[in-house]
Amino acid sequence: TGSIGGGCNDKHSHLCILSNNLFNQYFFLILWFWWVLLLILSFLGFFYRAAQMSNPSFSKAVFQLYLTPYGLDDTISRLSLRPADYFLLSRLAINVKGSTMQEVLQEMMHTDG
């Protein structure tokens, strides 16, 4: 007596679903490791952002790293800003051209001094 929709013809033995269970076991094991990796990366990103927002010297160092490709990393040695200001300026440095960032820093130096 077979089944109409396919599947296992033997109703007394459950060996026909063994390969499906094995596939599911490996699939969910890989999925579990993927979620653990994503969780670890998320925590690292959270701690990085928290350090950047709370520690002034770390914020300034990150901002200097964003200014290095433009050759402007030595221009902020006189600036004394809050960590949130450095964070905002580093986000700005990512999205504008180097000449625009240089004008922003010159204006900040002019109004600060």
A few lines on this structure:
The chain has 113 residues and is mainly alpha-helical. It has helices at 18-54, 56-67, 83-95, 98-112.
Describe the structure.
The protein is mostly helical and 113 residues long. 68% of the residues lie in helices and 0% in strands. The model has no long low-confidence stretch (mean pLDDT 83).
With helices defined by DSSP (H or I, 4 residues minimum), what is the helix count? 4
In whole angstroms, the N-to-C terminal distance is 92 Å
What coarse outline follows from CA principal-axis ratios?
Answer: rod-shaped
Question: Could you say which structural class the secondary elements and strand pairing correspond to?
Answer: mainly alpha
Estimate the mean pLDDT confidence: 83
Classify the helix fraction into a percent range: 55-70%
Strand percentage, roughly? under 5%
From the alpha-carbon coordinates, what is the Rg to the nearest angstrom?
28 Å
- The biggest beta sheet, please? none
Would you count the extended β strands for me? 0
Low-confidence stretches: none
Question: N-to-C SSE series?
Answer: HHHH
List key phrases describing it.
113 residues; mainly alpha; 68% helix
SSE blueprint and pairings:
Layout: H1 18-54, H2 56-67, H3 83-95, H4 98-112
